[in-house]
Amino acid sequence: DLGLVDLQFTSYEPIEAHVPVLGNVNISVNSTDITPPTSMQCEHLSFNGTTLTAHVTDVPFHMGFLCAYQKLGSSFWHNSGASQVKVVAGTLLHVNLMNPSETQVQVDLPTLDIKLQADAHSWMYEVLGRVMTPLIQRSMQLFGGKVLSHFVAKCLADPTCPHLQQHVTTSPP
Asked: Contacts from 54-60 at CB under 8 Å and sequence distance 24+?
């Protein structure tokens, strides 16, 4: 239980992205609620002196968010709405402490439910969510592990990693 921790993310400035056919658009995404994992299943955990292996499954979480886009220079191409994502995830992690470049992370997303709700053209966003969900799910499973493996290995090879900021609080005298 994360107790008093309030998870959120906010786009203070829109992110400019190029969308084929449409052109450059400003995109913003802001969380409305994030429900962190409340449980997980540890299937396997071992350490042989050099390699840590962990297999974790059934990690559920949910996120609601507001999203919007605006085509640059256009008052016609824009939309916004409230959407949500429900996920049940897992991972198989092999961390080689002696040779960090051999670290491997596999991502498993047995459940990915994306509901896009838009202020205009809601039918199109409902279909888009249904069509894109399997593609996103498969891509995250195929490429997500490779990206995570790279960053974990890079951090393991850097003695100053993780780069955490210290929060110092002082009490009045």
From this structure: 54/91, 54/92, 54/93, 55/90, 55/91, 55/92, 55/93, 56/90, 56/91, 56/93, 57/90, 57/108, 58/88, 58/90, 59/88, 59/89, 59/90, 60/86, 60/87, 60/88, 60/89, 60/111
Instruction: Find, among 77, 53, 148, the residue nearest to 109 by Cα.
Output: 148
How far apart, in whole angstroms, are the C-alpha atoms of residue 154 and residue 137? 25
Residue-wise pLDDT tens digits, 112-139: 999 999 998 888 888 888 999 999 999 9
- pTM, 2 dp: 0.74
